Amino acid sequence: MNVSVCTISFRHMLLSFADIAQFVHEQRFQAIELWGVHAKSLSQGGAAVIEHCRYLLKLYQIEISMISDYIDVSPQADMKSSILKCDELIALAQQFGTNKIRTFAGKAPSQSVNKHEREMVVNHLRVIGERCAAAGIMLLIETHPNTIADNTESTLLLMKEVNHEAVKVNLDFLHLWEAGDDPLASYGQLHNWVENFHLKNITSLENCTVFDSNNVYAPSGSRSGIVPLSDGQVDYASIIKAIHKSGKNASLEWFGDDPLRYLAQERQWIQQLV
Q1: From 258's CA, which of 61, 154, 162, 264 has a CA 20 to 30 Å away?
Q2: Distance between CA atoms of 42 and 50, rounded to whole angstroms?
């Protein structure tokens, strides 16, 4: 199992790509999960900036594990715009040498969508998945609240409905626990589709709202309840032991304060476990 740092953890810090790459190397991470906003910003710097990023990756013997962004596949999606966004992310993935793009399955909980709406999301994912496949890219659907992939049962059904070799799962253990599912049992059911893991923890179910996107993006948003993997409600000791021989990538998402300190501690804890 390779372990990545998510650059969204540094969304409110002034760090360069060189700073992040050096940190990742020094703390013995194997990869960087690059937030789409950061990838686009670096790309806008021109070919010299991209070349320097690739030089740093080679220098430190690390890689970009995935570009994490959002492509609208909801029933209301303007698919022309979504395809353009997909093409933009494919280009970024190719620039940074990764074969994975993360997105979400719509904008509404699975229980609130009717059969026709669900079919539209499935069809939209097939369209985007086919475009990714043509470029040698995998499209990873994150298990996440307020999407069709908000619990294990619905995510499993979604994978069978889409039935496309390029459409896979980014398994966020906390969000499946939040849905009332057993994280390890969920992994067992979704194993054939899982290509990446997201790791984060929380002190209580009530505090899971801190991971709502509007709160995450707000510099003054609440960080209440965000704790290291070893301290929260999700049993990550068991999870890490179960997935460390998977050959997949696991990304640390730290949305709390002082990310450099906590991510370094998380890496040490994982190393001690395995």
Answers
A1: 61
A2: 7
Instruction: Round to the nearest angstrom and report the end-to-end CA distance of the chain.
Output: 10
If residue 15 lies in a helix (H) or strand (E), which one and from where to where? none
Strands of the chain, DSSP E: 2-6, 31-35, 63-68, 100-103, 138-142, 167-172, 194-199, 201-202, 226-227, 249-252
Per-residue tokens: 38: 């950061």
DSSP string, 218-272: -TT---TTEE-TTTSSS-HHHHHHHHTTS--EEEE---SS-HHHHHHHHHHHHHH
Is residue 5 a contact partner of residue 33, using CB atoms and an 8 Å limit?
yes
Distance CA 57, CA 78 (A): 36
Q: ∠ CA(77), CA(251), CA(235), 5° rounding?
A: 110
* Whole-number pLDDT of residue 132: 99
Range of the domain at 57: 2-273
| Whether 12 is catalytic | no
Distance CA(195)–CA(36), nearest Å, equals 18
Number of other residues whose CB lies within 10 A of the CB of residue 145 = 18
Could you give the number of structural domains in the chain? 1
192/162 Cα distance (integer angstroms): 14
- For the domain that residue 12 is a member of, what is the CATH number? 3.20.20.150
* Confidence (pLDDT) at 229: 98
- The per-residue pLDDT for 225 is 97
Q: Distance between CA atoms of 252 and 270, rounded to whole angstroms?
A: 11
Q: Using the structure block, give the residue that is written with the tokens 């906390």.
A: 174
Ranges under pLDDT 50 in the chain: none
Task: Give pLDDT tens digits for 5-28.
Answer: 999 999 999 999 999 999 999 999
